[in-house]
Amino acid sequence: MFKKLIEKLATWEHWPFYIFYFPISFKWFWYYIKSGSLWFFTASNPTMEFGGFEGGSKTKVAKLLPPQLYPNSILINPSSKFSEVKKEVLLHELLYPFIVKPDIGMKGLLFRVVKNEKQLKKYHAAIPANYVIQEFVNMPYEVSVFYYRKPDEENGCITALIKKKLLHVIGDGKNTLHELIKNHLEFSISSRQVKKRYGKEGERILEAGEKYYLSHIANLQNGARFINLYDEIDAKMLHVFDKISHSNNFYYGRYDIKCSTIEDIREGENFKILEFNGSGSVPNHIYAGGFNLLDAYKEILKHWEALYDISEFNNKNGIRYWSFFKGYRFLMNSKKHFNILKRLDKVLFLIEVEK
Questions:
Q1: What is the mean pLDDT of residues 325-330?
Q2: Do domains 16-56+138-167+215-310 and 72-136+323-355 have the same CATH topology?
Q3: Would strands 168-170 and 211-213 be described as parallel, antiparallel, or unpaired?
Q4: Is pLDDT at 317 greater than 90 in this prediction?
Q5: Which pLDDT belongs to residue 170?
Q6: By C-alpha distance, which of 168, 178, 182 is closest to 210?
Q7: Domain topology for 72-136+323-355
Q8: Does residue 95 have a pLDDT over 70?
Q9: pLDDT digits over 232-266, tens only?
Q10: Domain coordinates in residue numbering, the chain
């Protein structure tokens, strides 16, 4: 018992949110006082709702990107007849498998890979909010680029480039999916949970070398691993993101990208921006190895300072901070929405493995 407690304390990467941020929270409160606003960050990215902190529409944000850089996507109203949804899928030439996700979402809630019409119909019937159908971008690299720029400066900076490895197991021609998952050191799940989650699919013996993704969500909560590619950042790559960010008045946040090679990003071609996140973005390169707890805190504080400076500059130049009541209403509505998604996420977890 004591040993497990020590192990948990040592692995700060998996601490609960409030425990992890408590030691540096004073700095965030200082920005409240200094700016005179609880929502100082809303001025950071003026083209994004709530500064891109949370609760914004993915489709509205996507319209800020050059069309060739965003995957083929459509917005679906859950009240639409399923026959109309099928027509939209055909009209936009979306082929199975594709991605479905809430238009307003976070942390991979209700993000699913839909493989057939039956799964799409189930998802459509269950989800209570607008959602996005998006092409499955079949490129080998999934990376994140953290970028920020002072609004009066021509060039910004890329503070991080990481590669994301999705949680997966590899078949050996002997063990079932159940057995491979149970033996997978990075995936903590009971035998009962495995059987419930994967059903008959879990009884299948994977062929030797067959890769089976346990999650297509590239975040820590879903077992993804991050690899630091900081040395790959150069002036050519920065030029690409300066150009994109100038076009959409984006000053602070993280681009999540799929590409075939890192060189393609440098050349500004043959890659897709799956999402880009604003002032609420976590500098998740702190989880890519090489950071101790103190280093991680220093990196977060550096990014918070940049966020404050950008927000303060924009505020002084006519972009007002959101009022207390406007921000409060927006945040409360977002929390209610996400609580609904969390409950439903548990109900629909089987959708990717059902036939």
A1: 97
A2: no
A3: antiparallel
A4: yes
A5: 86
A6: 168
A7: Dna Ligase; domain 1 (3.30.1490)
A8: yes
A9: 999 999 999 999 999 989 999 999 999 999 999 99
A10: 16-56+138-167+215-310, 72-136+323-355, 168-214
Nearest one of 138, 143, 113 to 256, comparing CA atoms = 143
Is the pLDDT higher at 5 or at 145?
145
Q: Distances in Å between the alpha carbon of 139 and those of 7, 63, 229, 275? A: 36, 22, 18, 15
pTM of the model as a whole: 0.89
Q: Was domain 16-56+138-167+215-310 assigned CATH 3.30.470.20?
A: yes
Question: ω before 102 within 30° of 0 (cis)?
Answer: no
Q: How far apart are CA 10 and CA 15, in angstroms?
A: 9
Q: Averaged over 17-36, what is the pLDDT?
A: 96
C-alpha to C-alpha distance for 55 and 39, rounded to whole angstroms: 14
Q: Which residues contact 137 (CB under 8 A, 6 or more apart)?
A: 71, 258, 272, 274
Q: How confident is the model at residue 349 (pLDDT cuts 50, 70, 90)?
A: low
User: Which pairs count as long-range contacts for 139-142, CB under 8 Å and 24+ apart, including other chains?
Assistant: 139/258, 139/259, 139/260, 139/271, 139/272, 140/260, 141/257, 141/258, 141/259, 141/260, 141/261, 141/262, 142/166, 142/218, 142/256, 142/257, 142/258, 142/274
Average pLDDT over residues 269-285: 94
